[in-house]
């Protein structure tokens, strides 16, 4: 049996990024007309002012993902025919079968690239980035398209204040490829989950899936359910632990990191981490005021905003962290 030679040691670089958020806005005042809330109440607790929402007649997870990855291909001058794998992190796929990633690959001309959806809630993009980095380092692929996209408005009950005030729609994308410098790319990464806490954030499809305490007469099937108090406790703890562990594992001090890219779930959670961990606040992007929580789209959206704004210090590592339903949490220390 002939065994192919091992791939030479190599690093990974980001060849291009892109993002998309629908032009349609849903403001806090708009929500106040739909549910018992107010702009002041929402801003005080979350930092959110508005969120972008798909036009159901024209936009969806796949259209947002396509817009984001096409931007990334344009930035990197990438021929879609050279893409080996398309990985789409999403909680809102177009359908169960086929995967949205397979249809996306066909739309952008990446066929016959491998393609699959990855379900890790708000960690979807970062899980995919970590996996793509490892696959490229192993020599199993040379160019991978990574997308995080969620049309959260399609799973919202806008009569439920707990969830509806938080989420928006968006997509973020990156194209990864090999680099001759093995020190580039993800030098430290984690992907974790604890399914014991699944009931704190879930989307029931039928009455039998409801957790104790959820009234079937009040629950809209196919819509997100959230135990806000439990999710907040989990997020605060795991978010800070993920950052602290990544810094300790790489022997980095908070000021050694050039940019912190955090999943945008709640501005108060990010602000708490800045204070308790001593992070330089000017290096931590907070854009949740404009977009809300865009789930799997969040980290990729932030990455693209920072790169296009020349706001990433390439001379220092970038630390990306995310957490979401599952419950899941993830991190990646990236060297440019």
Topology:
Layout: E1 11-20, E2 25-27, H1 28-32, H2 39-46, E3 50-52, H3 61-76, E4 85-89, H4 100-108, E5 114-118, H5 124-137, E6 144-151, H6 161-164, E7 169-179, E8 185-193, E9 201-202, E10 225-226, H7 228-250, E11 259-262, H8 267-277, H9 288-291, H10 298-308, E12 318-324, E13 328-335
Helix pairs in contact: 3-4, 7-8
Structural account:
With 336 residues, this protein is an alpha/beta fold. The protein has two domains: 11-179, Thiolase/Chalcone synthase (Peroxisomal Thiolase, Chain A, domain 1), CATH 3.40.47.10; 185-335, Thiolase/Chalcone synthase (Peroxisomal Thiolase, Chain A, domain 1). The chain is 31% helix and 23% strand. The chain is built from ten helices and 13 strands. It has a five-stranded mixed β-sheet with strand order 1-7-6-4-5, with helices on both faces. Strands 8-13-12-11 form a four-stranded mixed β-sheet, sandwiched between helices. Helix 4 links the parallel strand 4 and strand 5 (114-118). The mean pLDDT is 95.
């Amino acid at each position: 049996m002939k065994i192919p030679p091992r791939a030479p040691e190599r690093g990974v670089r980001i060849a291009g990024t892109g993002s998309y958020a629908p032009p349609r806005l849903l403001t806090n005042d708009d929500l106040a007309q739909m549910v018992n809330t107010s702009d002041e109440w929402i801003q005080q607790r979350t930092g959110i002012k508005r969120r972008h929402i798909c036009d159901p007649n024209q936009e969806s997870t796949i259209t947002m993902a396509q817009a984001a990855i096409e931007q990334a291909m344009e930035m990197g001058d990438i021929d879609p025919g050279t893409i080996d794998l398309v990985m789409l992190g999403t909680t809102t796929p177009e359908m169960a079968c086929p995967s949205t990633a397979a249809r996306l690959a066909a739309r952008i001309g990446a066929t016959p690239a491998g393609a699959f959806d990855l379900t890790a809630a708000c960690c979807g993009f970062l899980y995919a980035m970590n996996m793509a980095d490892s696959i490229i380092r192993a020599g199993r692929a040379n160019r991978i398209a990574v997308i995080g996209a969620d049309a959260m408005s399609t799973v919202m009950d806008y009569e439920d204040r707990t969830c509806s005030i938080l989420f928006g729609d968006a997509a973020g994308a990156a194209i990864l490829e090999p680099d001759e410098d093995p020190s580039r790319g993800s030098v430290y990464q984690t992907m974790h989950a604890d399914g014991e806490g699944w009931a704190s954030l879930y989307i029931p499809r039928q009455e039998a899936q409801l957790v104790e305490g959820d009234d079937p007469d009040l629950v809209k099937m196919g819509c997100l359910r959230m135990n806000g108090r439990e999710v907040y406790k989990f997020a605060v703890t795991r978010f800070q632990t993920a950052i602290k562990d990544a810094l300790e594992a790489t022997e980095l001090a908070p000021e050694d990191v050039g940019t912190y890219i955090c999943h945008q779930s709640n501005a108060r959670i990010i602000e708490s981490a800045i204070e308790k961990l001593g992070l330089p606040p000017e290096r931590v992007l907070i854009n949740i005021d404009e977009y809300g929580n865009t789930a799997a789209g969040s980290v990729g959206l932030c990455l693209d905003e920072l790169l296009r704004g020349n706001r990433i210090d390439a001379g220092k590592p970038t630390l990306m962290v995310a957490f979401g339903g599952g419950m899941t949490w993830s991190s990646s220390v990236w060297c440019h």
